[in-house]
């Protein structure tokens, strides 16, 4: 189910992600195979309620999002548009900004030990910025594509657009281990922006309205969050660019924030498990 890029395509509904299986990489639809007759009832589905709506820079092609010290930190993509930003939640104002050199397509963002680590898509390079000054302190190299990144407090966890999560040493950026993400034994690809929440990895599934909750030790999907309709709430119509992407967790406040690429709004949401049929 892995695709080749983190850019343009149409979104698909979230519910089929619970039934995801291996897929032709050339396809852009999340369609389960006809042979997969198992019920998705073992994977909980979650709906959402909007708690608050905040302004968001519609010029931001959101790649990474996190909450730290009372502010949002965000990375944006595309050559010539890639940035790392410190953002005021209430106003959406960009308080601080680092412009990534034109030749790099910015991707995911994570905070680590007073620093911000920003991936790039196909350049095999991560930039390490001082969180206060936004000055680049060093660089890391890696193989393959860079998509999303988060941390479990001991290691960095990176996605590359496939079904694989890669666990990295935060000091050397060397890969320590990896795990394949599966739903009922079948790979779930296109894993994009990542967030560590209460012992799980939450991941946007690129081109879909879904966030998957992943057990990091096994890679098993433990839940699927269906955010269908949220882009319309943001005032966004069908588009090949304006896809859902961006998860931030305020651990102290228990607040969950989500947004999308070029969205004019960022949402605080609450989740509720969807009753299974027959309940």
TrEMBL record:
Biased amino acid composition, Low complexity: 20-39
Transmembrane segments: none
Gene3D superfamilies the record matches: YVTN repeat-like/Quinoprotein amine dehydrogenase
Region (Disordered): 1-39
Protein known as: Glutaminyl-peptide cyclotransferase
Lineage of the species this protein comes from: Bacteria, Pseudomonadati, Pseudomonadota, Alphaproteobacteria, Parvularculales
């Amino acid at each position: 189910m892995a695709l080749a890029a983190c850019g343009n395509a149409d979104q698909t509904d979230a519910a089929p992600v619970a039934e995801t299986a291996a897929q032709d990489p050339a396809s852009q639809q999340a369609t389960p195979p006809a042979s997969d007759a198992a019920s998705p009832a073992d994977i909980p589905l979650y709906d959402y309620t909007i708690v608050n709506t905040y302004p968001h820079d519609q010029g931001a092609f959101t790649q990474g999002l996190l909450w730290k010290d009372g502010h949002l930190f965000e990375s944006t993509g595309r050559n010539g548009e890639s940035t790392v930003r410190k953002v005021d939640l209430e106003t959406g104002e960009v308080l601080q900004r680092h412009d990534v050199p034109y030749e790099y397509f910015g991707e995911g963002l994570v905070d680590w030990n007073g620093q911000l680590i920003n991936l790039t898509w196909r350049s095999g390079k991560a930039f390490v910025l001082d969180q206060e000054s936004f000055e680049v302190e060093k660089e890391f190299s890696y193989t393959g594509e860079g998509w999303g990144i988060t941390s479990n407090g001991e290691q960095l966890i990176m996605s590359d657009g496939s079904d694989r999560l890669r666990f990295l040493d935060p000091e050397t950026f060397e890969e320590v281990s990896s795990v394949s993400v599966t739903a009922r034994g079948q790979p779930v690809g296109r894993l994009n922006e990542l967030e560590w929440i209460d012992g799980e990895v939450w991941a946007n599934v690129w081109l879909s309205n879904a966030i998957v909750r992943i057990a990091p030790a096994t890679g098993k999907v433990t839940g699927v969050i269906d955010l269908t309709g949220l882009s319309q709430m943001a005032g966004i119509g069908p588009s090949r660019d304006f896809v859902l992407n961006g998860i931030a967790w305020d651990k102290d406040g228990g607040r969950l924030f989500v947004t999308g690429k070029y969205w004019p709004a960022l949402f605080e949401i609450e989740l509720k498990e969807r009753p299974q049929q027959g309940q």
